[in-house]
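#lab-general

N.A. 3:47 PM
ok so I finally got the sequence cleaned up, no stray characters, all 388 residues accounted for. can someone with queue access submit it? mine expired

B.Y. 3:52 PM
send it over

N.A. 3:53 PM
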Amino acid sequence: MLRAIWLTTQNEARLLVRDPTVLFMLLFAPVVIITVAGYSLGSLYGGSANSFWLPLVDLDHGKVAQGIIEALRREHGVTLEMLDDPDEARRLVSRRDRTPVAIVIPEETSVAVAAGGKPRLTLFVDSVRRVEVNALELRIDELCRKITEQARTAAQSQIESFGEAQAITLPGDIGFVEKPAIEGEAVTVNAFDQYVPGFGVTFLLIGMMLGLALTLFDERDWGTLKRLQVSGAPLTGLLLGKVFARFIVGIAQMVLLFAVGWALFGISLGRNPLALIIPTVGISFAAAALGLVVASIATAHDSLMSVGVTISMAMAAIGGCWWPLDFEPGWMRELARWLPTTWTMQAFNDLMIRNQPPSAALLPLAATIGIGVIFIVAGLLRFRSLDD
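B.Y. 4:20 PM
back already:
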């Protein structure tokens, strides 16, 4: 018994050592995911935080407004830009890549504070970037509290100087109220509005690796593709047929996930639920095309699994499927522009959370299809080179 165990262990070790690709991927796969997650979420654990560009409209022009502006200018990581038009501030937030929050200080804010009232600043917010919005709101709320305390301290000093005969009103609290930057957009967001499409895309990519790529590799390895060619079937037609079949399965998979997400988690399906088919078609095509590429470059069954799953998970993480793109450093966000997952998540966020019309998904669809076409061409060329 012990001898059999020892001999079997030796044999498996020899087989593993003979395949450097598998050895490489055993280390490479976790290193890739750790690197992506570490850079993306580093700011949450004390790393260099993102700088915020913060538009502000001052309609008050009083002492309280001046105090808020001066305090924000002293804030580390906040770049303040003064604007004159609240509508312009709203538009800047709605452009999604500019800023998550814009502040409007209403008229008579200083007067209301002095009279003991409770004025409210207006914050135009991008609900998709809720984590950044919350971070900025905490800082704004702290500044307003400090300004109120300073005003109350000054009022108390006046009371002590003039005595109780002098009637002095203590300043009121300064707060804020959120308003959506885009008309019809919800201010609060269901977390599943992000996670259902995000993890749906992740498992769609992995499914293509386990389905299309593994099937193609096995048929290539067993000689099935060669026998079909001998019978008269063109290689390009065979490959495109398999890609199309998995493309249809991918669409059905995503539709089912959205239906489950709506039934169990109450996710938003946007103005027009059928519009979600647009990004679904794009990512299903790109994922199937990527499976073709991976099947063409893999040299062993085990290495295909490692390479395919690693590429899928890294592409999903960098492309915003697991966390907001704004967590990532600038160089990683630039890299994300070349991934189909980035464009797909942009379209899903626009349709589901920002309540944009179906036309908002057309540019992401074009970008995703374009990337998929590049994958298709690369995979077909690689298979042809193997066939020669």
